[in-house]
Amino acid sequence: MNKVILCFFTIVLFSCVDNKSRINIKKQNTGNGSDKNQLLFIVKDSKYTNLNFTNTVNEKLDENYLNYEFFYNGSGVAVGDINNDGLPDIYFAGNSSNDKLFINKGNFKFEDISISSGISKFTGWSTGVTMVDINSDGWMDIYVCRSGPSKNIKNRTKRLYINNKDNSFTESAAFYGLQNKNYSIQSAFFDYDLDGDLDMYLLNHPVPGFKAKKAVGHMKDIKEGRIQTDIFYENIDGIYVDVSKKANLVNFGYRHGIAVGDINNDGYPDIYISSDFEEPDVLAINQGNKTFKNETDSYLNHISFNSMGNEMVDINNDGLLDIYVVDMAPSDHFRSKAYMKSMNVKRFHGLKDNGYHSQYMFNTFHMNNDGGDFSEVAQFSGTAKTDWSWSPLFFDMDHDGDKDLFITNGIKENFLFRDINTEVNKRKRSGLEIGLDELLNIVPSDITENLFYQNKGGSKFENVSRKWAKSSLYNSNGIATGDFDNDGDLDFVTNNMDSNATLYESQAANRKDANSIKFLIKGTEKNPGAIGARLKLTTDSGSQWHELYTVRGYLSSIDPAVIFGIKNNESASLTITWPDGEISKISSLEANKTYVIDYYETEKEKVLDLEKQSKIFSNIKSSGITFQHKEDDFNDYQKQVLLPHSQSNVGPSIVKGDINGDGLDDVFIGGAAGQSGILYIQNISGEFFEMKGPWNQDIQYEDTGGLFFDSDGDNDLDLYIVSGGAHLAENDVLYQDRLYINDGKGNFYKASKKIPTILISGQAVAASDIDGDGDQDLFIGGRITPDQYPYAPNSYLLINNNGKFTKQQIEVNQMVSSALFSDYDSDGDDDLITVGEWSPIKIFNNENGSFSPANIESLNETTGLWFGLAENDLDQDGDIDYFIGNIGLNTKFKVNDKKEFHIYSHDFDSNGTYDIVLSSNYNGNLVPSRGRECSSEQMPFIKDKFEDYRSFANATLNDIYGEKLNEALHYEANILYSVFLENMGDGSFKIKKLPWQSQLAPISSFAVTDINNDGFNEVITVGNLYNVEVETVRYDSSRGSILSFSNGEFNALSHLETGFITTGDSRGICTIKNNSQTTLLVTNNDGSLDIFKSN
Fold it and tell me: Which residues pair with 881 in a beta bridge?
């Protein structure tokens, strides 16, 4: 519901703007702009800060990784003002080390009060730590989670330190009902039922040595609540009571991270929980009735496999919370091939078939589209592979108004090293004993650099690690921010294993054009920290949002003070939505000051729910079209194991035309192999009904393309259907296309003898009178040669002679995915344009019915993996422009000034199959994209040639394949993004990259239409490609996009504005006009249609 604000106070009473609660921030601008070449963060020397804390783990025969898999997972850190002196203090959690508490004495000096505070008496294996005012007395308390390998229960007993207001604490976990003895990871406090007090979710992991049932039984146990790790507590009169079952939060998993926030903007906090190993992450949506519902499957199309820390923040400043999760994926070629396991294809699909999620070994960035639908864009963002990562933390480091990203990395002992068994067996064969110490000597310590990423505008990030801070190697785990020197920027501290904790001092406050505003938020009596408050800050540069939850990243909690960077803006306005739904608005806030905002001393505004604002389109259920595509069960990867993506899932096609002369468009939707296509006839009210035809007897064919055209010159539309797929052998008779003749009334018969025999697997068909004899000729594009990717099949022209066609081969040399006839050069005849995978954009000039390749310089370097093609004079300059859909930029494959993308195909092992080798560059050489394990499945000689993973990881492409590379078919991609081809009117083109919203997946189809009746066309894109090999994240992030065009520039319209959100593996889009209403029909592979009608 939209919200209308009604003020019910007439006198403004803001304590936040009087002199007592507004504090100037000390800021020293350099004034000359040279600060951009200086470091943004400086590591403070512990000799100066007195922050002496090192987290350690002591390996013992009965306490080590082999009997406790979380052994090297590290600990967290909490930041908050425990003594109310206005300076944030620090609590470090330790594993084998004792916890430590430091109070901030100012000027980055700290004092260790671990002993005097009383916390040192309670030793144990600490994991996560949270600062929270649990008893609502205005003083920060500390809750410490514990776990570990010890069999001594005291070592994993949770501790709650209640603040005595004199720098000492009393341990009171039992009194509050929180002295849990499970293997706990982290806690999160939030008001789930909006009753004003803080409830708590406790993350746990299974008992060490837990043995799960087989996949089917294990998932059934999880979904039916038969096994449980986590506990959810409700705060009832100050005591915490387990209400996990009542709240539908009986969850199980190997936990690492928890994030809380209102993901769907309904006013209630939701939960995201990240899990290691095979148990899927949990997105628990608050139902507003004291229960939650796990919506992971319905909200997210895929998730990380080894999910570590996570974040739920508004990353792109659109007012919607996004979700970010880190995994363990190295970006370095050697490390990825030597250390990381390959995805097990059989297990991946087995898990998915048995109720698990689609899970991949990459970071995931779930960008919120509308509160209930997400696009995963980590590959596009440039942050999909950050190494063995633990904690992500987003905050505006450079004060430009966008949240930047810091990621902690490292593992003390990397037991995922692929050659451990090889090394152990070598030693055993030499007669050497392998004890714990010897094993640890074999296992590499994997310490990698922590990473800084600068937000370049919401969804794109740049690695600026060595620009913003000196390079340093720490095995860091938890991270927490705080303005330790009260200068108006966020410093931060990391908890490191086997090295001293690191404190980074921010220099942002001293930079030019890096203003900020700081807020200290005071809440209600039961929630004095205002946990759950939502802040919106607006300047002339735009708006930013922040939800106030302190448990962030991994095992840690941040200081609750909120700092917004506002660039060179001098003032801002603030809107606070308090946890109870009340709203406060404050304007004219000066930059570089700290404001204390008190719930009880601010004017409130009441919120009323009204009807939602109308969107351009509404998603409707049927409109009479009930077709559901049912893809046949075929494994594309059986012969070509290294195939990058499926070649058999190109349908369903959709074509439109008025087949019965009533002035209304009708549609034909193609079926999969074993499924009939369906013709739908439209009536005057815009509804459709099915008409039977001869295609119902042709269910054995797979319909991959189609066209309504007048084949016989009788002024009605006949139907040509392209047959394709990859499920049959080359030259199979079921690859024969079909022609159905219309009798003028919408009745069809099959005309097999009117088209020649062409046994190619195709997809593209286009019609034009290419020879000027008054009838429609055809181009038939060959799409694939089964099991011979990326070799191109033949393509043909079909010349129309009084309704009967003869074929002429045309040398396209392309796996044609889309084609059209178009007069690009305005010479009065239709030329041929084709696109396909591993090919440049090709144009063939029509010279009196003969076609020859056009030499257009701007198209020479356009080799891509093209899927879709459309035309329109979008800029209204009198010539035709083109839209071409590529694989997109949300892929692990990269093409830029540093990265190359190649494909080779050859029978490298001389066994009669076409072997595929995908390649990129590394240290000046081409190297394989796929690892030793999966490469050797296709070519077994690789295991013999490279006896271990390390040697394969060090090998170049030439080392592996030798001289046979010179004999192989070879392509190199120049461009992966989808484009607008602007016709310059002189036979040349200007290539323009489409907006990023159209780069999130392969674009397979376009529609161009005026959606808002303003006289200007918009461009609609659809795409995705689910069936990819399992080490490539499936392309499922497109929800379609609608692009407006003005003054030569595109602008992507928001899903919230248009209402256009596709839901599946989209293949085609068709626009239907009926009176003033527009209907959009979107076909989905292996699914039903998405149907949208204009409002």
Answer: 872
What residues have CB less than 8 Å from 578, skipping those under 6 apart? Answer: 523, 524, 530, 533, 584, 599, 604
CA-CA distances (angstroms) from residue 932 to 652, 935, 954? 36, 5, 11
- Give the separation between CA 133 and CA 429, rounded to whole angstroms: 59
Residues for the chain: how many in total? 1095
Say whether pLDDT at 668 is over 80: yes
Q: What is the pLDDT of residues 590-631, one digit of tens each?
A: 999 999 999 999 998 876 554 567 899 999 987 999 999 999
Q: Is this model's pTM higher than 0.90 or not? A: yes
Return d(Cα 504, Cα 44) in angstroms, integer.
6
Report the DSSP pairing between strands 359-360 and 303-304.
Answer: parallel
Preceding omega of 793 cis (within 30 degrees of 0): no
Rg, Å, the chain Cα set: 31
DSSP string, 625-640: ---B-------TTTT-
On the question of a cis peptide bond just before residue 652, with omega within 30 degrees of 0, the verdict is yes
Residue 96 · residue 58 · CB < 8 Å: yes
Are residues 901 and 976 in contact, defined by beta-carbon separation less than 8 angstroms? yes
Nearest by Cα to 777 from 823, 860, 720, 733: 720
Contacts of 198 (CB under 8 A, 6+ apart): 132, 134, 189, 190, 191, 235, 526, 527, 531
- DSSP conformational letter for 464: -
What burial class does residue 757 get, using C-beta atoms within 10 Å of its C-beta: 0-12 exposed, 13-18 middle, 19+ buried?
A: exposed
Angle at 304 between CA 299 and CA 310, to 5 degrees: 80
Q: Give dist(CA 426, CA 434) in Å, integer.
A: 11
Quickly count: other Cβ atoms within 10 Å of residue 393's Cβ. Answer: 26
Q: What is the pLDDT of residue 6?
A: 24
Identity of residue 588: S
Residue 35 pLDDT exceeds 70: no
| Cα–Cα distance measured from residue 1083 to residue 1091, given in angstroms and rounded to the nearest whole number | 9
Which are the contacts of 887, defined by CB distance < 8 A and separation ≥ 6?
Answer: 864, 865, 867, 893, 976, 1002, 1035
Structural contact between residues 81 and 89, judged by C-beta atoms closer than 8 angstroms: yes
Please state whether the peptide bond connecting residue 790 to the residue before it is cis, i.e. omega within 30 degrees of 0: yes
Residue 616 has which token pair?
């351009």
Structural contact between residues 1024 and 1039, judged by C-beta atoms closer than 8 angstroms: no
Name the 3-class secondary structure at 494: strand
End-to-end CA separation in angstroms for the chain = 18
Q: Are 326 and 386 in contact (CB under 8 A)?
A: yes
Q: What is the pLDDT of residues 108-120, one digit of tens each?
A: 999 999 999 999 9
CB 108 within 8 A of CB 48: yes
Q: How many CB atoms lie within 10 A of CB 1048?
A: 11
Cα–Cα–Cα angle for 995, 1001, 1005, rounded to 5 degrees:
80
Amino acid at 825: D
Q: Pick from 726, 754, 727, 728: which is nearest to 740 by CA? A: 754
Does an H or E element contain 143, and which? Answer: strand 141-147
Which residues does 541 contact at the CB level (< 8 Å), separation at least 6?
Answer: 401, 566, 567, 569
Tokens of 106: 């100012």
Note the Cα 7 to chain centre separation in Å: 40
Strand (E) or helix (H) holding 375: strand 374-376
φ and ψ of 690, to 5 deg: -80, 140
Q: Are strands 748-750 and 738-742 parallel, antiparallel or unpaired?
A: antiparallel
* C-alpha dist (Å) from residue 960 to 917, 918, 924, 964: 11, 13, 16, 10
Q: Which residues contact 396 (CB under 8 A, 6 or more apart)?
A: 402, 403, 404, 455, 490, 544, 563, 564, 565
Torsion angle of C-alpha atoms 700, 701, 703, 709, degrees rounded to 10: -120
Amino acid type, 1081: L
Residue 724: which region, alpha, beta or left (left: phi > 0; alpha: psi -120 to 50)?
Answer: beta
